[in-house]
Write a structure and sequence with these properties.
single chain, 349 residues, alpha+beta, Aminopeptidase, 28% strand, elongated
Length: 349
């Protein structure tokens, strides 16, 4: 049976005892993990896992097979103050978490752990949490590798000792991409101002100024987007679905064009361009487009190489004219034209 046949739902109260037994059985069989005699309080919590749902925002989720068997379970915490671990995790704000992931022995290898994890992530995103927090141990190598494959990264500040057992913390930033609005404009202007100041301080190529009127038009036409984590704007960028002013005869209605990418200075180093590219690949796929295109300064080889590291190809240099279709900052400008070929993106199996 494929994992797509399994469903995740909130466990019924009459399933709590069975899930508790499942968790006790799974954790007690882990090599290198404390046994019940060593940590009786922990195993009592596992056996009575359903009681955790009495805490606000806490849900016991179960993966159910097509023949209605419980294939695995996990506890999702929408409010980290009820997370119940050692260390500092319970003091985290604007975050969700999950604990006590367990998969029945007969269901291993079916992707049940990932299915449960993704449901917790979905719930956290729906709640507008900025991040997901989890813990695991060295005894849980299968889960550890799965978490890293999803995008969780080690966060040593969350580590703690459970008796004599080291427990390791992980974080997953949660992002959403949505349109900016007029209410965001003051913050957008601030971000552009900060970006220009940063470029100048590092002696980088700089815009010099920004075109407020053009930015307002992009917002009004729903062509500017923001990446948000919780309530924070991490990054903004603009798109076009036709760009003849720069791409000329190459414009055939088969590309999405990325422009004016600006990162909130408080979130530099978060690898946000990768998130923009993921969004653009998804958008291009939905619209049946062949390419993702962008431009940058022609005399900035480091920036060109940075975009090439993501799979963009350098096509040619081009100097723009003074078309009113362009923002003031993009007129009479020498640009490098870059293209990402969607045909080169592997199709998930």
């Amino acid at each position: 049976m494929g994992k797509q046949e399994y469903k995740v739902r909130n466990a019924d109260s009459d399933e709590f005892e069975e899930i508790g037994k499942l968790m006790v059985g799974v954790y007690s069989q882990l090599d290198g993990f404390p046994k019940e005699a060593e940590q009786p309080g922990y195993y009592k919590m596992l056996a009575n896992v359903g009681e955790l749902t009495n805490k606000p925002g806490t849900e016991l989720l179960a993966a159910i097979s097509p023949d209605h068997r419980i294939a695995g379970a996990v506890v999702y915490f929408g409010d980290m103050q009820y997370y119940g671990s050692g260390g500092t995790a319970t003091r985290e704000t604007n975050a969700s978490g999950f604990r006590l992931l367990a998969v029945a022995p007969w269901a291993r290898g079916l992707g049940i752990g990932k299915l449960l994890t993704n449901e917790c992530i979905r719930k956290a995103k729906a709640k507008d949490s900025a991040q997901m927090i989890i813990h695991t141990t060295a005894a849980m190598q299968t889960a550890w590798k799965m978490y890293e494959s999803i995008g969780f990264t080690r966060s040593e500040d969350l580590d703690f000792m459970q008796g004599e057992l080291p427990v390791y913390g992980f974080r997953l930033p949660l992002y959403r991409v949505i349109n900016t609005t007029r209410a965001d404009l003051d913050f957008v202007y601030w971000m552009f101002g900060e970006a220009i100041a940063y470029q100048k301080s590092k002696n980088f190529k700089s815009w010099g100024f920004y075109d407020k009127e053009y930015l307002q038009k992009e917002v009004d036409n729903r062509l500017q987007y923001k990446i948000i984590g919780g309530t924070d704007i991490l990054c903004i960028f603009s798109v076009l679905f036709s760009d003849p002013a720069i791409w000329g005869k190459k414009e055939n209605g088969d590309a999405i064009y990325l422009h004016r990418i600006v990162v909130n200075p408080n979130f530099r180093g978060y690898k946000l361009f990768g998130k923009i590219l993921e969004w653009a690949i998804d958008m291009a796929g939905k619209k049946g487009l062949k390419y993702i295109r962008m431009d940058t300064w022609a005399d900035s080889p480091k920036i060109i190489d940075y975009y090439r590291s993501f799979g963009f190809r350098f096509l040619e240099n081009y100097t723009t004219g003074d078309s009113p279709e362009l923002p003031l900052t993009n007129r009479n400008l020498a640009l490098a034209l870059l293209q990402f070929d969607l045909a080169a993106v592997p199709i998930p199996s």
